[in-house]
């Protein structure tokens, strides 16, 4: 047996005849965390798993013996890996920065609709999503960029967030400027051209 100073101040002896349950727990937990990255890719659990394996290695060679110090070490190693390396690995991943798409706007798909004049079916305001507009033969939930429009008023499509159209009063012009929509407003058939 060889004596070595541990990180927690105790002198420990390296007994390679058996692995203690906590070292085994860090080892198995680290492998499980790394494997879970393949099930739910987040580029987070893999770093937690690597930190657990490093903690298990330090426990295995006898540098750390205390369980609370092991968890503290695992936490610090995890932070030390996640904070600097996760953004770097995300950039190397195909598809850019993030695996999950957070932006629900679909500017390219809706470019032809932007700037079109639509009829307000239910009052539309900026502070709620209860407003309704008529567009392409059906009604859609809508929200104003600024102010409110009453039933029967005309609105101009600015962009879409999921299934909610963001609209503005006709003539405000931000949709044309923001998305380079033609100067002339597109008024679909069936909508009164008086605005």
Question: Could you walk me through the main structural features you see in this protein, from its secondary elements to its overall organization?
Answer:
The chain is α+β, with helices and mostly antiparallel strands. The protein folds into two domains: 3-92, no CATH class; 107-179, Nucleic acid-binding proteins (OB fold (Dihydrolipoamide Acetyltransferase, E2P), Beta Barrel). Helices cover 36% and strands 22% of the residues. It contains five helices and nine strands, in the order ββααααβββββββα. Strands 3-5-6-9-8 form a five-stranded mixed barrel. β8 and β9 (164-169) form a beta hairpin. α1 (21-39) packs antiparallel against α2 (45-60) and α2 runs antiparallel to α3. It is rod-shaped. Mean pLDDT is 78; it is low at 96-104 and 181-187.
What tags apply to this protein structure?
single chain; 195 residues; alpha+beta; OB fold (Dihydrolipoamide Acetyltransferase, E2P); five-stranded mixed β-barrel; two-stranded antiparallel ribbon; 9 strands; 36% helix; rod-shaped
What's the layout of helices and strands?
Blueprint: E1 3-5, E2 11-13, H1 21-39, H2 45-60, H3 67-92, H4 107-110, E3 117-122, E4 124-125, E5 131-135, E6 138-144, E7 148-149, E8 154-161, E9 164-169, H5 174-179
Parallel strand pairs: 6-9
Antiparallel strand pairs: 1-2, 3-5, 3-8, 4-7, 5-6, 8-9
Helix pairs in contact: 1-2, 2-3
Q: Which word captures the global form? A: rod-shaped
Report the portion of residues in β strands.
15-25%
Task: State the helicity in percent bands.
Answer: 25-40%
Whole-number total of structural domains: 2
Number of helices: 5
Nearest-integer average pLDDT: 78
Give the uncertain stretches in residue-range form.
96-104, 181-187
Query: Taking Cα atoms only, what radius of gyration do you get, to the nearest Å?
Result: 29 Å
- For the secondary structure, the number of strands is 9
Specify the biggest β-sheet: 5 strands, mixed, barrel
Q: Distance between termini?
A: 90 Å
Strand order of the largest sheet: 3-5-6-9-8
* SSE arrangement, N to C: EEHHHHEEEEEEEH
Which structural category do the helix and sheet elements fall into? alpha+beta
């Amino acid at each position: 047996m060889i004596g070595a100073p541990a990180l927690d101040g105790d002198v420990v002896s390296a007994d390679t005849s058996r692995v203690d349950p906590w070292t085994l727990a860090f080892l198995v937990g680290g492998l499980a965390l790394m494997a879970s990255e393949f099930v739910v890719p987040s580029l987070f659990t893999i770093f937690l798993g690597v930190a657990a394996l490093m903690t298990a290695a330090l426990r295995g060679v006898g540098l750390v013996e205390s369980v609370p110090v092991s968890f503290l070490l695992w936490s610090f190693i995890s932070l030390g890996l996640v904070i600097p390396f996760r953004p770097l690995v995300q950039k190397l991943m195909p598809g850019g920065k993030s695996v999950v798409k957070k932006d629900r706007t679909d500017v390219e798909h809706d470019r032809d609709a932007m700037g079109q004049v639509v009829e307000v079916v239910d009052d539309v305001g900026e502070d709620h999503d209860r407003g309704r507009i008529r567009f392409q033969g059906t009604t859609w939930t809508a929200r104003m960029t600024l102010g409110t429009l009453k039933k029967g008023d005309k609105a101009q499509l600015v962009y879409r967030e999921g299934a909610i159209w963001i609209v503005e009063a006709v003539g405000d012009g931000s949709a044309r400027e923001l998305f380079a929509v033609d100067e002339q407003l597109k008024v679909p058939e069936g909508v009164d051209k008086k605005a």
